[in-house]
Design a protein that fits this description.
2 copies of one chain form a homodimer. By secondary structure, chain A is α/β, with parallel strands linked by helices. Chain A contains 11 helices and 15 strands.
C-alpha cells in the first residue's frame, strides 16, 4: 500500500474563479486508523458548485474551509483497511471524502454509506448522490410538483438540471422546458433527455421564448443559476407558481455585484412562492429516493452522463468547469 | 336627494406620484337603480397603496383602471334607495364603491356587505376591512406565525403594519420589531401599540439594528415596502424564516428602477420561503377573521387610528400621503 496521502488544501481564498494560488497539493502520511474506523482509498470526487461557496469566508450552511485545510467535498472509494464491524475491506462507500487520496470512514457525522453493488461508483455519485437527491427532493418536496405542471429548469444540461427535467417528465409534468447555453447542449436536452423544449440563453431572448412556450405561465421553476434568467422566469410565473432556489451559480464568483431579481413582485400578483433548500436536510430520506431513482436506472428511463477529469491534482480546474459551462453532465474527478 | 354624482376619474396615467392632471372630478346624474339593486351614498373611501398600481397600464391581479373610468377603491356608505330584498334603506354597507358620491350595490361580484352595527364605519374600513384582513391572513395564513416567533414588520406605523404588529403580539410572538420612518412614529409603536422595538429607517442602520435585536434571526418578516429594507431582513433571516410579501410600496412609483433584493440567496442558506398573496383570495374567509378582530376591538386590546382627509376631491392627495409617509394610521377620505 502507498504510504503517502496527497491532499489538495486551501491556501488563499479566491476572488472569482479558482486561481493557481488558491490551492496547493501537499503530502502527508496515510492516516492511521483507530478502533471503529476504516481507511478508504478515494476513487472519485463529486465536483459541486457548493464547494466554491465553502472557500469564501462568509456565513453559509456549513463553516468555511479553513486555510491549509483539505477542500471539503463528497466522493466515493473503497475500504482498504478496517477496525470497524461496519466496514469490510473491499466495500465501496460514499460520503465526505475531501480532495485527497485517502480518508477515514468513521461513525456519526463522519460515517460513510454503502454504494449499490450493481451500479458503478460514478453513477452512484451522480444520480444516486447529492446531484440526483437535489433534483428529486427539490422538485417533488420543495417545489411540490403536480401532474400537468409546466416545469422550467435552468442549468438544464448540468448534472442537477438534466435530472430535474427527467424526473419532472417521469412524474407527469405536461411540459418540460430546459434553459442551457449553446446549440449542442440544447439539442441534447431535446434529443437525448426528453425535454419538450430547450431555450439557448446565449442565442435566444429567454423572456420572449418563455412567454411563447408557456403562454399560461410557469407552474414550477427550478433555479440553478439566479441572475437575469431567474428574473425572466419570475416575470412568466403562473398563478400560484413555485420557484425552487437550488443555487445561484451566476453569483458565486462575484459577490460584490450580486444580482437581485427585480421581478420578485410577481410573487405578490401571482400569489407565488420562492423557497430555498439544502439537500443535507434531507439526508434521512435519501434511501426512499435512491430506491426510486435506482429503479429508473435499471429500467433504462433515466439518462445520466459523467464528465470525468483524471487526477486529483486537476480538481481545481474541474471545479472551474462548472462556472464556465465547459461540462455536460456531472463533473467527477477520478482519483485512482 | 341630490341629483348630481361627482366622480373622480382617471385622465392620464401617472409616472411617479399622482399629479394635477392624473385625475379629474366630473359630474353625472345620480344613477338609476333597477330591480335587485340599491343606491348607496358613499361616506368613506379606503385609501390603499394598491389603487396606485391599478393606475398603471400593466398586468396585475385586476385589470388597469381605464382612461375616463372612475378610480376603483373600497369604501363604505349608507343605502338611500333600494329595489332589493338584500338591502334596506338606512343599512350601512362596505364594498367596492369607487371614488364617487353614489354607487350601486348589486348582486354577485358587485354585492356589498353589511357593516357591524356597534362599530363605526371608519373602524370597519380599517381593521375589519382590507387593512385588517391583510394583516390577519398575511401573518397567520401565508406567514404561518408560530408562538415564540421573532416577527419584523416594515411600514409598521401604517395601517396594515400596525395591525400586523398587534396581531403578532396577541398571537404569541416572542418579540415584535417594527420598522418605521421618524422618531414620532417609532415612539408610537412602542408606547401605544405594544411593539417591543422600533427601528427608525431614516436615522438607524436597519441591518445593524436588526442583527442586534434579533441575534438568532427573524422568523417572520411581513414586508410592506420592498427595497433595501427587504434586503436587510433577508440578510437577517432565521433558519426556516418566512417572508410575507404584502406590498412593495417603495417601488410603486418608480417601475423603471425596480429594486431586486440581492440577498434573496439567504433563502437557500437558511432554507427560507418568500411568498406573496392578494387579500381578495381570502374573501370567503373574512367573516371568521372579522369575528376575531371585532372581539379584540370590544376587549380594547386592538388599537387603531384613522387619518381622515375631508372631501372626495382630495382623494388623490390622500393617496399620495401613503407614498410620502405623511400619515399615521389608516388613510380614509370622508365623502359625506
Amino acid at each position: 500500500m502507498e504510504t503517502t496521502n496527497r491532499q489538495v488544501v486551501l491556501k488563499n481564498r479566491p476572488t472569482g474563479m479558482i486561481a493557481e494560488d488558491t490551492t496547493a497539493v501537499v503530502e502527508s502520511p496515510v492516516p492511521e486508523i483507530t478502533d471503529g474506523q476504516a481507511l478508504v482509498r478515494v476513487k472519485y470526487l463529486s465536483i459541486d458548485p457548493t464547494i466554491r461557496t465553502w472557500m469564501d469566508d462568509a456565513p453559509g450552511y456549513l463553516p468555511p474551509i479553513g486555510i491549509d485545510e483539505v477542500i471539503r467535498a463528497g466522493g466515493a472509494g473503497e475500504v482498504v483497511a478496517s477496525k470497524s464491524s461496519r466496514y469490510a475491506v473491499g466495500d465501496l462507500v460514499t460520503g465526505i471524502t475531501g480532495w485527497q487520496d485517502y480518508c477515514i470512514a468513521d461513525e456519526g457525522m463522519a460515517a460513510m454509506s454503502p454504494a449499490p453493488a450493481d451500479l458503478d461508483l460514478a453513477t452512484t455519485l451522480n444520480v444516486l448522490g447529492v446531484t440526483g437527491m437535489t433534483a428529486y427532493f427539490g422538485l417533488l418536496d420543495v417545489g411540490g410538483l403536480r401532474e400537468g405542471d409546466v416545469v422550467v429548469v435552468s442549468g438544464a444540461a448540468g448534472a442537477t438540471g438534466s435530472a430535474v427535467g427527467q424526473i419532472a417528465r417521469l412524474k407527469g409534468a405536461s411540459k418540460v422546458i430546459g434553459i442551457a447555453g449553446g446549440a449542442a447542449k440544447c439539442a441534447q436536452l431535446v434529443e437525448e433527455l426528453g425535454f419538450d423544449v430547450a431555450i439557448d440563453y446565449k442565442a435566444d431572448n429567454v423572456g420572449k421564448r418563455l412567454h411563447e412556450e408557456a403562454p399560461k405561465g410557469i407552474d414550477l421553476y427550478f433555479d440553478n443559476v439566479g441572475g437575469p434568467i431567474l428574473d425572466a422566469c419570475l416575470a412568466n410565473l403562473a398563478m400560484r407558481g413555485r420557484v425552487v432556489l437550488c443555487g445561484a451559480i451566476s453569483g458565486y464568483n462575484d459577490a460584490e455585484h450580486a444580482f437581485g431579481p427585480k421581478n420578485y413582485t410577481s410573487l405578490i400578483i401571482r400569489r407565488g412562492r420562492m423557497e430555498g433548500f439544502i439537500i443535507l436536510d434531507y439526508m434521512g430520506r435519501w434511501p426512499e429516493a435512491q430506491a426510486v431513482v435506482a429503479e429508473w436506472l435499471r429500467e433504462g428511463v433515466m439518462h445520466h452522463s459523467e464528465h470525468i477529469v483524471e487526477g486529483l491534482e486537476h480538481a481545481p480546474e474541474a471545479l472551474n468547469l462548472l462556472f464556465t459551462g465547459g461540462n455536460t453532465g456531472k463533473v467527477l474527478v477520478k482519483v485512482s
